[in-house]
Amino acid sequence: MPVELYKNKFKSRLRSGPCQIGFWSTFGSPVATEILGHAGFDWIVLDTEHGPADPFTTLLQLQALTGTETSACVRIASNDPVLTKKALDIGAQTIIVPQVESAADARRAIASTVFPPKGTRGVSTTARASRYGAIADYHRRADDEICVVAMIESAKGLRALAEIIEVDGVDAILFGPQDLAADMGFLAQPGTGDVVQAMEKAVAFILSHGKSPGIAVGNEADAKRWMDRGVRFVTCGSDVSLLARGAEAIAQRLARARGPA
Question: Which three-class secondary structure string do you get for 211-253?
Fold first, then answer.
C-alpha cells in the first residue's frame, strides 16, 4: 500500500481560515508536548534555541504530536543548514528561523530546506521524514510541504522587512517581542509603546503585501489584541511559564490559607 506524505496543515491554514492559536514548548519533554497537543491548540513551537531540547528529544516531541490535530513547528537554534537538515530529517515540516535580519539570511534559510538543484538540503533515503524510506517519491514532493517562518527579533530585521518578505520561500514572519524590545533599548519591556508601534506598522505592511504575520506573546489579552490587528498566527505563553506560575499561585494560596509558618 502506498505511503502518503503528510500534508502541512500549518502551512495550508496560513493561506485561509482564522488566526492559528499556538503555544510555546521549551521543556523538550514528549509527555508535556503530548498534553499540549490534546489541549486544542492549532500549533506548538518546539523550541531548540532556548531550553534543553536536542534532535533526539525533538524527535520524541514530534512523535508525541502525531496522534493529535496540532501542528508542530520547530524553532532551530540558529540559521544553520546542519540544524535545519536534522530538524527536517526527523520529520519537521515547519521550520522557524531565529534572527533573520536580511534577504541574504532569508535566502540561506530557504536554501537549506530545499533539495538540489534549487537548494542545498542534504539527501537521506531512510530519514523519518520519508517514513524511513517508505514514501518512494519523497524527495520529489517534500519541498511543497515545507514551511519556513522567518523570525524578526531586531531593529535591523525590521528595517530589512521589505526585502525579507520578497524572498521566494519565506511563508511567514514571526515577531519576537522580547528580543526586539531588547535590541531597541527596552530590555524585558516588550509592551513599550515604541516597540508595539513598530510591530503594528510591520504587521500592517506584511498584510498589505499578502503575506502572513505572526507574533509570540505571554498573555491572553495581548494575544487577543494582536488577533484583532490581523495576525495569522499567535502563541500565548509557554509550558515553562504555565507550570512555574501555576505552581507558584497554588503554593501562595495555600500558604495564605495556612497562615504564618
Answer: CEEEEEECCHHHHHHHHHCCCCEEEEEEHHHHHHHHHHHHHHH
